[in-house]
Amino acid sequence: MTITEQAPPEASGVVAPVQIEPAPPKPPKPPRKPRRPRLPPPPRPLAPRDGRWWAGAMILTVSLLLLGFVAHVAAFSAFQHYRAQTIAYGDLRTSLAKAETPVGQLVSEDEMVELGTPVALLDAPSIGLSEVVLEGSSGEVLRSGIGHRRDSVMPGQAGLAVILGRQSTYGGPFSQLYRLAPGDEITITTGQGVNTYRVFGLRRAGDPMPPDLAANKGRLELQTADGLALFPSGVLHVDAELVSKRQQNPSRVMGYAALPPAERAMGQDPSAWFAAFFAFVFFAAAGIGMWWLWTRWGRWHAWLVGVPVLVALGVVTADIVMNALPNLL
Fold first, then answer.
1. DSSP conformation letters of 98-148
2. Complete domains list, the chain, with CATH
3. Most buried pick, 74, 131, 191, 222, via CB within 10 A?
């Protein structure tokens, strides 16, 4: 028997099968940790207590007070003046018709004319001024119109008649007084009739005084604040001479020395600051209440409720403070 050699697989052309080793098994995945529930974010504090917040709150409160003051000067005081003048004009017409308009300092032997009583109507056509004149010249009286200084004679009588009026607040009835020129006429209707004055000069602090008034002659002096509105530099005086028939002078009981300081030009009432202090306290309390609402209700709710209240209190506070400021502002 012949033993033959077996050819290698390459030589025979037959490819030997390749055995592929199986991949190692993947390690098991670790068990997932239970997902923690997502908590809502902590609420943002409505009113932080840092210094910047309180500084902003204070600035905003003061700004609202100033806004109330501006609103009062620009709008509300003018409405007050218009309403007061409407009422005073009706009262003056009635008293003139009944011949009951006061023509002197007294209404009886021992009773002076009440402050705020309508006593005359002043017309200055060259500056478009027509205003009821009230008795007295304190800040309280001048809120309602121009005022006759009680120590002076009534317009149309022999002597010096002095009328004061505000420059810018409460309608600013004397805001255009500086436009009067020599030769302009002013008529004043009183319980004694219609009286005509002719302007002969305007003067300020440091200007020469007019000549002394001759006997049985009449003169009118109008006074208001001079300079920028609410920032007066002095008093503006307008001098006018009586050119119509002189009226009879009744008896007088008050001179300039007895006139209260609050009724003189740029006079102030110190007692009014007491009421102004309490007005500021109420306004500050309202401001604190607004910030408390901020912490409880949120920003927009506090603004919606607090801002109108603060502006209204600012207007009231400004109205009270005006009584303590100079009477010609």
1. TT----SSEEETTEEPPTT-EEEEEEEGGGTEEEEEEE--STTGGGSSEEE
2. 70-263 (2.40.260.10)
3. 222
